[in-house]
Amino acid sequence: MHELPITESILNIVITYAEKNNVRQVVAINLRVGRLSDLEDEWIQRYFDYLSKGTVAEGAKLKIERTPIKLQCNSCATSYEVEITNISDTVCPSCGKKGSKLISGREYYIKDMEVQ
Amino acid sequence: MEGVRLIEVKEEILADNIKVAAEVRERLRNTKTLLLNLMSSPGSGKTSLILRTLEGLKGSVKLGVIEADIDSTVDAEKVAARGIPAIQLRTGGFCHLDATMVTQGIDALAASEFDLIIIENVGNLVCPAEFDTGAHKNVMILSVPEGDDKPLKYPLMFTICDVLMVNKIDYLSLSDFDMAALRKRVLALNPKIRIIEVSCKTGAGIGDWVAWLKKEVDAFRLDKRSV
Questions:
Q1: How many helices and strands, by DSSP H and E, does chain A display?
Q2: CB contact under 8 A, B156 and A21
Q3: Which of A110, B19, B158, B215 ranks highest by number of CB atoms within 10 Å?
Q4: Whole-structure pTM over 0.95, yes or no?
């Protein structure tokens, strides 16, 4: 359900950049979202289509790149990727120890936008 | 057709909330008011834990409560009935509190008067994990009837919390909840998390929780940079 406030933030940022750059039409927005987020792509697009009506971003396609969940081992500092389904059952592939910190997988980021 | 060009944006989508959350943390650090964000599923015992906490602190800590619900004032009324200042925020359908809503709550409470403010977030293990409220400490409750598999389903929530309260341990004998499996799953996600087993019904374990909380409040009062 928190797709709605997130979509609102995306739209506000996009409109600000569109105004600064004399944009006639926003065609696509490239986002980077971490795999730990459970945002549904389809719902972000639906909310976006609704909120962006009548703005320069109406009809823009949201292209979402999912960034992997990366952990860094507390013992040997090796960083490694894990899937969300086995995140709580992993050991460091280098030293075999448990215990790590999250270094990526929570991003919410607008990379760039394709405009006319 | 006119050519398409690319504009670099490079912006954090949640930048506004991150900024307001940092302001909340700094503001309350200056008044030595510890802000604690309490999260869980609906019905796992957030309000019961707050009521037990009031009893346990026995007036040794000046406590205020910010309650958040989609649409009711039931929780704030329960807390206020014990003589504790409580503000109810109605999120109007939103599934979580953000730092701007928390700012309204601390303004309404005159937060600088307090040693400790507990935010009772909206009952939900998903969205509140994504939005920084500005709290200095994040605490979650998992109750025994919810099952020991929740860290597998909601890893982010277990990752961001400082303390996990396992509530309703009086139900353990009636269920197949595996405490050892839960601890293993949670500690693999977040090795620094403190796990405290309690029953808000019988009062078991509440002493451990109150002792931890008092220690944190005292440390915050003495050294405002400790948290």
A1: 2, 6
A2: no
A3: B158
A4: no
